[in-house]
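Predict structure. Chain length: 352.
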Amino acid sequence: MNGVHTPKRLTVSLETAALLPGIAPQGRVSLGSLASAALKGGANGVMLHITEDRGLVTETDLRDCALACHLVEAAFNLRMTPATDSVALALDHRPNAVYLGAETRVRAMVGAGLSLKFNVNHIHRVISSLGGAGIRTVICVEPNLDTIEAALRAGFEAIELDTLSLCEAIDSTDLDRLEVELGRITSLARYASRHGVEVQLGGGLNAHSLSILARLSVVRQINLGRATVADALIDGMACVVAQAMTTVQAAGRDQDSYEARRRRLVYRATYRGFREMDMILSSFFRGEEAALDDPALLIAERVLDLPDHGLYDLIRNDLKPDRGLNVSIIKQLRAHYRRGIQCPTHIEIHAQ
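Prediction complete.
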């Protein structure tokens, strides 16, 4: 995931704050004021999600957020369906970019990828109409190869990969799922980037998952949403966005670089205080250190978070019905352990 890092843009989607009635004098949160606070914290832009029932964002919100962005030359973006009335609204308000996704109602604010199996001609007309007004079009897609290739054929220059499932995996203890989901997003992002498409990420991101996904060097923009608004209730929007921007800027660099993370991994593997486990892990990771990058490196870090005896049993017992049995690192550790049983000097030599 590390590589040549270019600065990433960070945008914040604000419309979920409108679900908090009664805490403002007029019974509504001022999205324009939130936009100003997010931009003060360092966000490169803000986004508003226009639902099909128009139940959250008002004309006042649109005008105020657009003005807040204009004053500091930041991006003002809208997320919507390609419906004709939504496109007309975008043409009226002239955002910097429109994000096309599937239909969403007011309280189901989790975005969904847009299918390109149908109405391709209509979508081409939408792209043309928005482009004629100087509005960039980004498509929100589910993380699979078919949708990426469909977006390429449709002529999109930028995509947003839906990271909701991956973020759920990051916040879980299911290593199997994490390896699959992170591997999928990583490979798809690289594939799209190689084909000249700008890659953005959005969906389910919180402070923890942001610190991991910001390492992906081919990603050009990360779009935050619900979790940021929720954190802002405690710490303030400007503070939360500033912390997020610091996380993005630090990802993959200095103490978060591959080299630094690999050194910490070997140290953790060597000095756990459980002698037989130390020898197994140290000999394995010293041999694999130079080859580890993400997603394998992140999985290895998670493996070392497991309790000593639980990890030891997982490595020794192929039939133990625990999650993680299909994780590549666990399989490799088992093979390394079996070779050590057959030839004890194998582990002793590699541990030195």
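Summary: Residues 73 and 208 are 29 Å apart (CA to CA).
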